[in-house]
Amino acid sequence: xxxxxxxxxxxxxxxxxxxxxxxxxxxxxxxxxxxxxxxxxxxxxxxxxxxxxxxxxxxxxxxxxxxxxxxxxxxxxxxxxxxxxxxxxxxxxxxxxxxxxxxxxxxxxxxxxxxxxxxxxxxxxxxxxxxxxxxxxxxxxxxxxxxxxxxxxxxxxxxxxxxxxxxxxxxxxxxxxxxxxxxxxxxxxxxxxxxxxxxxxxxxxxxxxxxxxxxxxxxxxxxxxxxxx
Length: 229
Known about the structure:
This protein is mostly helical. It has one domain: yeast vps74-n-term truncation variant fold (Orthogonal Bundle), CATH 1.10.3630. Helices cover 55% and strands 8% of the residues. The chain is built from nine helices and five strands, in the order ααββαβααββαααα. The protein has helices at 6-14, 26-42, 77-83, 91-99, 105-120, 142-156, 164-176, 185-199, 205-228, and strands spanning 46-49, 62-65, 89-90, 124-127, 137-140. The strands form two sheets. A three-stranded antiparallel beta sheet has the order 1-2-3. It has a two-stranded antiparallel sheet with strand order 4-5. The chain is globular, with a radius of gyration of 17 Å. The termini are far apart. It is found in: Golgi apparatus membrane. Keywords: Golgi apparatus, Lipid-binding, Membrane.
């Protein structure tokens, strides 16, 4: 069985009991997009530039493609192809195109591609889109869910090395609110303290960068919601 990737792990935990990501839960959708971009960054496919500091928190960042998409990351092709515009793409533009386009086709294409990759591995069951839904639903198996939850517990709640992928996953689960569905308050507190300690250490520079990046995306989408409402 292949190892799951950051985006696949987040997807498994984030979909609801009907196998879908609700369009009303913006934080979960933003964190799905963030998981894909973090995975591309960790794979050397893109770089995320901080840009100039502005009054608006989270603005000024841009994304550039820096390398080819590995075959094992093929399910991220819809996102990679969108970002591969031959020039840096502003974070605000990415969020607008993925969350405020009329058709929602870009986000739906990403969801379908991730879900299909899990279905092919027998880790999720695909179902036709419901009425007025633009994307198929994918219901993860119990084994897939337990696999991800156990992996998080083994790294964050036990002594030992915490990989960048799992640190990023916990950040996404916490920021999206998904973490409450799988871990007790005590476990959440322990994981938060462990991550805080990691981000303050010299070895945790990348984890801190990922945390800042996710926060900036959520800050930006909050402003966009105000603008578009």
